Amino acid sequence: MRIKRAGLLLFTLCVAPALVFGQDAIAAGATDKSKPVSPTTTLSFPSTATTLTQDQIKELIQKVADNDDKNDKVQHDYTYIEREVEHKLDGKGNTKSTETKTYEVLEIYGEQVEKLIEKDDKPLSPKDAAKEDEKIQKIIDKRKNETDKQREKRLKEEEKDREESRKWVHEISDAYNFALVGTEPVGGRQAWVISAEPRPGFVPHLKYANYLPKFHGRVWIDKTDIELSKMDVECLDTVSWGLFVARLHKGTRFALEQTRVNDEVWLPQSLSFKLDARVALLKGFKMEDEQTFRDYKKFRTDAKVTGIGEVPPEK
């Protein structure tokens, strides 16, 4: 499941299904923990503030969203390794089975693509490895032959997605009452801890925004870089969506941690969720999923698609 930059949009049900049904791990090299990364760090209040008003917290969230948009762009310069451990649970919460998959996530003509490299922490057989190489080669060939018109259409769709994300930031700001809980260290760095509880009387304006009051959580915001460093979200009530009625039950949880990479960007370090769900009339299922992200490498400087040659950067 390659990373889908979501930032605070992980609060929304639009992102939760992507994480669950088909959606980083310290970076290589040491970093100076006192040096700010993000250019968007100016706030109207000092980082030493011990109390914040609702307007100040909303300002903080907007800054985080702006920086996350920048992270999204820089992330496309990186390849990385993703390891996913999926535990299927029985009705009592006991583990029935465990499956582990490890991927190399590549950047191919502006698109993140997964290449499976291990199953249950063992290298693929030569036959399966060849299939993965063939899959990657097909993607390269498709993008290499992309016309100017096709590329223009794709880029417009990507910009439309970014614009929708910006709208969601405002919707989230209206949907919750925020409170500064305090400060805590995350990865050796001080972070504000912000709680978000559903605001009574919230009127949604975007599709699926009516689900927001069914979630609550906390976010940890790095005080130096104004970046999302940690997040914990919980489902408060049963949520249903889709033509075939998929459901998330009360108690479903999502947790995200991010880390600073190469003094220039914040990227996921770990993502986990504990799921209790039902799809249509099928039997309900429970699972725990843990994803870790590591070995971030600058694609244009120190990484290449092994076995099938280098892929040129997007123009």
Write the layout of secondary structure elements.
Elements: H1 16-21, H2 54-75, E1 78-89, E2 95-108, E3 111-119, E4 122-123, H3 126-144, H4 148-175, E5 176-186, E6 189-198, E7 215-222, E8 228-235, E9 239-241, E10 246-248, E11 253-261, E12 265-279, E13 285-298, H5 299-302
Antiparallel strand pairs: 1-2, 1-13, 2-3, 3-4, 5-6, 6-7, 7-8, 8-11, 9-10, 10-12, 11-12, 12-13
Helix pairs in contact: 2-4
- Total count of strands: 13
Unreliable spans are 1-40, 301-315
C-alpha Rg, in Å?
20 Å
Distance between the termini: 26 Å
Overall morphology:
globular
Largest sheet: 13 strands, antiparallel
Description:
The chain is an alpha+beta fold and 315 residues long. The chain is 25% helix and 37% strand. Helix 2 runs antiparallel to helix 4. The radius of gyration is 20 Å and the shape is globular. Strands 1, 2, 3, 4, 5, 6, 7, 8, 9, 10, 11, 12 and 13 form a 13-stranded antiparallel beta sheet that branches. It has helices spanning 16-21, 54-75, 126-144, 148-175, 299-302, and strands spanning 78-89, 95-108, 111-119, 122-123, 176-186, 189-198, 215-222, 228-235, 239-241, 246-248, 253-261, 265-279, 285-298. The chain is built from five helices and 13 strands.
